[in-house]
Design goal:
alpha/beta, three-stranded antiparallel beta sheet, 17 helices, 11 strands
Length: 394
């Protein structure tokens, strides 16, 4: 079966999540994605180590379906190899500061001199402003600067999401940008640069808050897990754990009120709209918490489902892995990796295509696993490879 990006080659200089996960999505779509590792392994390989060799959990997730070459890209010999690889490529991914890109010859001006139809994907922390383009930043910094952290957590204690939502969403935006650039290239014959930033992604997440603040000056504050714009929308304790319930819209609110045996709430003037129900969310959360007392997770969720009210269990990571309903959606591809006694649950991409599906069919590469293969493909021979090893270029 042919793939959407079959025949497309991607050079992935990305690190951590935003760049590498973009590459993984392109690989899921059929592209030949080559990860450029430092000799000995790049630093992001070893975050959250899960294998005897120190390979990390996130590395296994965001580098599936790729090949790996080790390369000293700072050396003159390494730069020659990079240029040869670029001449065979369609896309370059490099989430590095602008000055570093220029120093390595991976900036767009340098790349398009080599190959006019190359597409460069260069996600950054803060975008292209002169004031911030050399500053470093991670997911949490983007979350914090967007305004979203201010309204998360509790009064006096802001909280960010503990999973890197901004990183992963930026990678999705980058992958969409690549697809758009490749589509446009069919008519123009030219490449272009795809920009994205953690901050811009995070600002998109906070956009409703920002528009409301600009127009109304609402000055929203943290309300824990309780929504300030509808209700009841909160996390509630049941006898054997916790559940989340999200009631939005008057029709749903009426069904909820009848479910908990409080139909009089429907005619309460304080609760006439989502906005007012959010403002009186403490009252509604207290009523819902009382209803949850004495009910198990299964009992509560079954009743809520019957009333067509969005709700779900608050899972621990182990409970996610044990949830048969989640497994039955095809969420995971269990893949063997050298040194692991059991397969690793690689999470499939968040989208799929019916006729040309995305697939996870290759584990993340070990350090430099495909170096010889890739260099042979761009014209190097065994003698040249031996010399490059002696010089620690590969």
């Amino acid at each position: 079966m042919s793939k959407v990006l079959e025949g497309i080659r991607v050079l992935d200089f990305g690190r951590y999540i935003a760049g590498p996960f973009c590459g993984a999505l392109l690989a899921d779509l059929g592209a030949d994605v080559i990860r450029i590792d430092r000799v000995g392994g790049s630093e992001d390989r070893f975050v959250m180590p899960v294998t005897p060799g120190g390979d990390g959990a996130l590395f296994l997730q965001v580098n599936r379906n790729k090949r790996s070459i080790t390369l000293d890209i700072d050396s003159p010999e390494g730069k020659v190899i990079v240029r040869r690889l670029v001449l065979t490529a369609d896309v370059v991914i490099a989430n590095m500061p602008a000055q570093t890109l220029a120093k390595l010859g991976l900036d767009y001006e340098s790349l398009r001199e080599l190959k006019a139809d190359i597409v460069l994907v260069a996600p950054s922390a803060f975008g292209g402003s002169d004031a911030m383009n050399e500053r470093l930043g991670f997911d949490g910094v983007g979350q914090a600067m967007s305004g979203g952290v201010h309204v998360s957590g509790f009064a006096g204690q802001p909280m960010k999401a503990m999973v890197p939502v901004v990183d992963f969403a930026t990678a999705l935006a980058c992958a969409m940008g690549v697809l758009a650039a490749l589509y446009e290239r069919k008519s123009s014959g030219l490449g272009q640069k795809v920009d994205a930033s953690l901050l811009q992604t995070a600002l998109n997440f906070s956009s409703g808050l920002l528009i409301e603040e600009a127009l109304l000056g609402s000055n929203r504050q943290a309300t824990g897990n309780r929504s300030p714009i509808a209700g009841p929308s909160d996390i509630f304790q049941v006898t054997d754990g916790w559940i989340i319930v999200q009631v939005i819209g008057t029709g749903m609110f009426k069904r909820w009120a009848h479910l908990i045996g409080a139909p009089e709430l429907v005619d309460d003037p304080r609760l006439a709209s989502d906005q007012s129900r959010g403002e009186h969310g403490q009252l509604l959360s207290a009523r819902m918490a009382k209803w949850c007392e004495g009910r198990s997770q299964q009992q509560a969720l079954s009743a809520l489902e019957g009333a067509k009210i969005p709700a779900g269990p608050v899972h621990s990571p182990q409970e996610v892995l044990e949830d048969k309903e989640i497994a039955d959606t095809g969420a995971f591809e269990w893949i063997d990796y050298p040194g692991l006694a059991t397969p690793a649950p690689i999470v499939r991409a968040p989208m799929n295509l019916s006729r040309t599906p995305l697939e996870v069919n290759r584990r993340a590469p070990t350090v430099g696993e495909h170096t010889e293969q890739i260099l042979y493909e761009v014209g190097y021979n065994a003698v040249q490879l031996d010399r490059l090893r002696e010089l620690s270029i590969i």
